Amino acid sequence: MDESHALVVEGLTKIFRQQTAVDHVSFRVARGRFFGFLGPNGAGKSTIIRMLTGLLRPTSGDAVVEGARLSLDLLGVKRRIGVLTEDLALYERLTGEEHLLFAARMHRIQRDEARRRTEELLEFLSLADERSKLVVDYSLGMRKKLALACALVHNPQVLFLDEPLNGIDPVSGRVVMDLLQRLAKKGVTLFFTSHVLDVVERLCDEVAIIDRGRIVAQGSLDQIRSQRALAGDASLEDVFLKLVEADVRRGDLSWIG
Amino acid sequence: MDRLIALVALRWRLDVRAVTGERVRLLALVVAVPGLILLSAAASFVVFAGVRFLESARPELTLSVVSAGTTALGLLWALSPLLAGMALTETYDLNRLLHFPIPLPTLVVSSFLANLLQSTVLALMPPLFFLGLAVAGPGGAMVPVAFGLALALAFVVASGQLVGLALHALSRHRRLHDRLLFVGLALGLLLSFLPLLLMSGAAAPIGRLARELLARDVFVLSPFGWGIRAAVHAGRGEADAFFGFAAAAVLGVGALLALSTSLVERMYRGELDLGEGARESALGRSRVFLKGPVGALLEKDLRMVWRDPRQKAIILSGLVTPLILLVLVWQGSSGHVGPVPLLALASFVGLSTLGTNAFALERRGLPLLLGFPVERVLVLVGKNASALLLRVPAVLMIAAATALLAGFRFVPAVLSILLLTQLLTAAADNYLAVLFPIPVPAPGRSPDAPTSGSRGLGVAFMTMLAMAGALALSSPFAFLAWLPHLLGDHRLWVLTLPLALAGAVGLYGLLTAGASALLMRREPDLLARVLGEE
Questions:
Q1: What is the domain partition of chain B in residue ranges?
Q2: Which of A69, B106, B150, B201 has its CA 20 to 30 Å from the CA of residue B435?
Q3: Strand partners, A15
Q4: ipTM summary value
Q5: Does residue A66 or residue B440 have the better pLDDT?
Q6: With an 8 Å Cβ cutoff, is A102 touching chain B?
Q7: What CATH number should be reported for the domain holding residue A71?
Q8: Bridge partners of A84?
């Protein structure tokens, strides 16, 4: 086992009804990295996250998360990770505070410590005033912050974040981004997907770009630029559009103007 | 007119696709259609024969009776989404069409016209036709009769539309939505008791009241009956009365459609947005009562059930079956009930734990639950414990009934049998939950919407098998618990009851460990099945 890598993905493949969604994907993420995972809609990002977090069985391939092998020690993997999924499955008839306390207790955090962490997270994510509201009455941004709090409550070694800033107001977005950067500095590995490429460019040390189920590039932005002989000032958006061979149509609609 | 036709066609196309695209709905329709046809035929016969009889024997009562019938039908029709416990937000949604520059009256009328082709509305046509034949008589004026009947039908459908919209407006206020849903379900449950009530001694006073109301013709005030009254008057050749009631019915339908339009306008302009529910939902600081993940799960489930009107209603309705059985046992025993029927009842209530499904309450929260690194055996124990705790009211009812009907000394034995049957049934149900998970609706849809690929006939067979298995597994322990009574020495209960319970707990542990090992192996497949991602 490679001790310096938090995440080792080996030939991960997922086939849904004879359609290959993820095709022999392999990559490694060093510990404490802010790793951006990019791809167009339907490229396989969420499927890979679901497989890496044990929510979907790979058709073939395996992964090792902080030393725990997915196929052999699923609970071990789940102990080490925090997950913020795109669909934000939350218990709607619990209050925000109850939800967070529940998540902490399910991670076997002692009652007093669970309460302390809950308080701190609610304050930090500006949810303290909404603590006693049912989740069903939360806005999208509040749900996202609560789901993020649940992913953080047990001090995970690897955080999987699927579009974490989507729907969050700019102030909270900045708080969350600062927090994520501090976590990365403390050695937490962040596996991050977002369609907002300038945010990814700003935050991530390394990115992988997936298209039609295959990794088409991986490395720092500079590395990818030099590998693909792209201009030195090309933004991540330029690189991304080039690599996924996006057909960006230009021109007018015939009936407008 | 083009837009109206396009809107009606769109709605019909969507309705047809909703049925043909989902196996469960298609199956429900296939099952429902013969029933609807039979019901419609029976209703046609009753209406025709009844009205003919009234017209010949008691013609002065005809108007009152048909008005009362239509009023009852109209009220049930309008309140049916509430009584069925349907999510109020599902009853009506014009949101997607409001972005188009379509006049609101056109939208409302298109929805009204599309409603006329619903299968339940179509099932009303034959009884109405036969009612027309009955009131028109030979050589009667069929056209004005049909016009009156059409007005009656229009009023019923338009009132359903208005109530649907009102419920949709109310559903924006979550607390009101929850309360209405709970009250509606309770009302539906009470209505289902109506036949029992009528079979009991309450039939006579209800009959007297009904006769009094019919004799005084109070239903002349019900707008549901105006169209029907117009039809009857047309059949009798009473032109003035026909025109009077027909005009009133036309005005009534117009008023309902105008009210619906106004409601849509105000609702979607935000004037009726009663969204204070969020502020009101503040529930105070949360408290932790129990330790560990099992305690956390238990507290979470109890809180969620108590706060979810649908779940709460299901739990309360679970009390009804034992209550009915108790009443039947009581009536059948002419006052003296021996312990054996109570023993059977205890086993029956214990077996009713089957089908609770350890993961049913989780629905889209299942990935969240299984995302926690908690040993799966503890997850199953926690879920079973909450299923058993939610049945405590039924257990207490059986205990009280046993104490009252058979004597206090039978309570420990009856309760032990109930508990051990519940425990082993929950253990058997874990296997069903793991092997035959129930898919949940996709994100964005109502969490309670029906889904395709739910448990089919094969699974129903497996459920029966599991029930037989649970019965077989619990029988030796139940026998052990009951042995002292068979031997006529009740002192032995001190020994046999703890032994029976300990044996059942041991077997439950073994079965649950097996189910948790199965769950560990099948976990990602189970999630894929539940979330419809296979």
A1: 24-92+125-274, 293-530
A2: A69
A3: A20
A4: 0.85
A5: A66
A6: yes
A7: 3.40.50.300
A8: A161
